[in-house]
Queue: 2 jobs
Job 1
Amino acid sequence: MVNRQRLIDNFINMVKVDSPSGNELEMATWLINYLKERNIEVKMDSAGDKIGGNCGNIVAYIKGESSENPICFAAHMDQVMPCLGVKPVIDGNLIKTDGTTTLGADDKAGIAAILEALECVLEDKVPHRDIYLLFTACEESGLNGAKNFKSENLPCKDVVILDAGGATGVIAYKAPAQETIKVTFHGKKAHAGIEPEKGINAIVVASHAISNMHIGRLDELTTSNIGRIEGGGATNIVTDEVTFTAEIRSHVPKRLAEEIEHMKKCCVDAAEKFNATCEFINENAYPSFELSKDSYVFKLSEEAIRKVGIEPNPMIIGGGSDANIIANLGYRCAILSVGMYEVHTVNEYVNTDEMYQAAQMVYHMMAL
Ligand code: ZN
Ligand code: CA
């Protein structure tokens, strides 16, 4: 059976291993050693070289009693800063930090749940399906491990990712695409007191453009935001350059395209009105993904959650994760929660009761 103490011990050992994005090698080595001690085949791909990090993605394979419906269980190895020298603090059924770092329950709670489930299956010699494990690098720094992942290393179709926040029971099955945008307005410099009429103030142009934009929640499935604006200098100079960054997210590709066009039109029109110029650069950060509720992996997730005594909580999420990238390589991805809270902050903690439930869920999904 799932061993609660062993799960917690493994989790604590892992959070003590530094693993900032791009520097996951120590964590990867820990995992490779763990798997090799159990005679599990494991390999690392070359994504690290392409990302400029010290570590690629790890894939492991455990042959089962049935080759029907193999499943991959996935989590990411990296965590957000500040995360060097994590000192976990046990407080009843919670594990927190000393307040100086993130905990890295995002996503080591996911890794710990997967490893504990696997350990039980192997230890109890439970008949199980063909199991793949995928541990990615650089998820937090732009999904770059997943973006450089080669699908030939993972010959199955269903992937269960243990990386959703909040109470156990969540099955995140739909996430938006995101476009990142950078705009630069070029006006014309002039002395603001002597000959302002010779200048074109880029701040005025940008303000005009932004005041016409759709910002915030645009509809139920679409959002946008301006992240940062910068430009200008002394008050006696008409500002000649302003740059801002923005993002637009949508679950609906057509709406995403419309809103990109609208934002662009606001910029072009403002530049034209003031005789300025603008550069509008947009780039897809990640595509959207959606898992059918009729799919095998969705139904299996529901069943596993019910076996643990929880009502499944299918959820549409607003953020991107490895699932956005992996799903667009042709995999069917479900993202399950593992009891991590306040992630990406120094208040991050994990509820070990929920991490334990997550390990039980994974166990039920591995076992035949
Ligand atoms: Zn995560
Ligand atoms: Ca995260």
Note: The radius of gyration is 24 Å.
Job 2
Amino acid sequence: MKIRTNFPLQTLNSLNVSAVTDEIYFPCSVKELSEITRDKTNKAYILGEGTNTLFCQANAPLIIKPSLKGIEVSESEEYFHVSAACAESWHDFVLFCTNEGMYGLESLALIPGSVGAAPVQNIGAYGKEVGDFIERVTWFDFTQQKLVEFTKADCQFGYRNSVFKQLLNGKGVITHVHFLLPKVWQAVDSYQGLSDLTPPVTPQAIMAKVIQLRQAKLPTPKVLPNAGSFFKNPIVSQAIFQLLQQQYPTMPSYQQGNGEVKLAAGWMIEQAGLKGFRQNGVGVHEHQALVIINYDRKGGEDIVAFSRFVQEQVMNKFNIALVPEVRFITQHTELDNVNAGEQ
Ligand code: EPU
């Protein structure tokens, strides 16, 4: 197995912060995963393509970067069953499925990251989440040193959340994700921006539109280092929403099935006057205020300080606490996201 010591991580995280790890492991198979000893796995952080990770300090923890590759397809009467290994690129996988006539994932095109990271965050865009298409997930358990199968229900998918991010965080690695793509395809084109497509709406047309929308709003990490949405959209009670709506009648809102209401963090950051704002080489993107850009390739501490500033401004204006979607990783621990900006 490839192992490196004293390894710089700047090119392995899309915010481009410089951080160094004492050791990094690149297991290419389940056998190689099982060769990593417990004293190492106990303190390891699992890194995908680093598109949702903020190394907060100059020193990063021990890293395991799973490098398993491969895609397998089979079919039943109603479904395509597509299994992909964790280190496949998410966008390339979406292209592969769409080009092969296996549809459903097209709304999730161009989301940066790996296949293995997709269920951890339950990535989503334009009315769809990856969990909608997952049949099961294969996971390598560090304690038992064996593969465990998780059904979709076991994964406990929520908004940018899953059991892998909560209870199982750091306890193992997703090796393969198994997708169930219905052969009868149904367009999801109700989302603002997709609703003006000319009928008949095809998966290819949705994918092209999603790519166009994302390219217009979301900066390419290689040009402007960023981690996509930096914060989650806050979900509040109906009572809190009504209070806010009285004060801000144009505030965007999305009713959730359970009576709660999702608010638009990007809108709040913009209303707080921060869209396009830059300080000390870090800034809020000028086309999408939910994205923080590391313009001057600053260190993790500077991004943490800037995100705390954004949280403070939104708290002062709306009395709403923004919670980072990005994971805050220090040398010895992962910061609790609810309080991450407060550290
Ligand atoms: N808005 C503003 N100003 C801004 C940004 C947004 O007023 O600077 C308003 C928009 O006009 C709209 C609302 O806020 O009324 C929501 O904006 P948008 O549709 O752009 O989506 P978002 O809620 O900001 C979420 C996801 C994105 C995903 C888009 C599209 C989260 C945290 N983010 O963003 O996901 O691409 O919807 O579906 O849920 C990511 O997670 O990294 C990501 C990019």
Note: Helices lie at 30-34, 38-41, 90-99, 117-121, 203-217, 238-247, 265-271, 300-318.
